[in-house]
Amino acid sequence: MINRQYLLAKRPKGLPEKTTWKYVETSVAELQEGEMLIENHYVSLDPAMRAWMNETRSYIEPIGLGKVMRAGTVGQVIRTKGNTKFEQGTFVTGWGGVQDFTISSGNDFYQIDPGKVGLPTFVGTLGMPGMTAYFGILEVGKIKKGDVVLVSGAAGAVGSIVGQIAKIKGCKVVGIAGGKHKCAYLVNELGFDGAIDYKNESVRKAIKRECPTGIDVYFDNVGGEILDAALMFLRMHARVVVCGAISQYNETVAKGPNNYLSLLVNRASMKGMVVLDYAKNYQQAIHQMSEWMANGKLKSKEDVYEGMDQFYETFLRLFSGEKLGKLVLKIKQ
Fold first, then answer.
1. In the chain, how many domains are there?
2. pLDDT of residue 83
3. Angle at 71 between CA 330 and CA 123, to 5 degrees
């Protein structure tokens, strides 16, 4: 059995190049006692992958040079040896990496039921992005009925779920996205109350138009100038959830907000969130979100591309904006 893998070859500076990774084909090793072999079907592509490639530690250890590119996966256990955590034939999700096959003891994997929703959903709405949205807006954002919620990166994997949950909870929701198509998607399909096209209009003027009374919760996925604009419109005791800063990931020097004094004036708070902190409650979130999906209250959108050889081109879509919803790569042949 041949395992196609992408290994981290060098630390990127700015936007990663194709040579950032080394493509290799290796034979699958023999299993040791207590190990299982997982055949990966889908690989999750997430903005956080860019931060994991840096030499400095973020919320988890950086990927080692020469190691398989870290990524979430959905796959099936096709072989076991001895007493393993999962039986042969079980579908699982976890950190399988950008490769066809993963050997694991199973400690970092969770069993899933592919009969209810499609496999890609388990690296999207019912995976890390969905968990990030759920706990980020409910536990950190502490939304309540009637709040005005502004979401950046709103057409992406996390932002699209954040906005829908806020609507379910009775909030007014405005999303920031790039392009008329994405903005129409937010309003017409996801039920947002308004949308701001950062590519074709002044974000500051548009926030004033869509949120004339100010913002109670700003869920930030992009950082940079958009974060700075949002800070100008905070209401008293507003909450800013710092989830990501995709506009800054490829910058050699990150740009911080100039309008941070708005936090002081409005007695507001800005708090970062990392989804791993809520791991013990994932099942609670999955149950609730599955129920919302079954009732038609929550829509799941996966943007799936196919082929291991398309990894680099698909990865770049994270930063070009050429995607809608959760970016997923199908690798099973």
1. 2
2. 79
3. 60
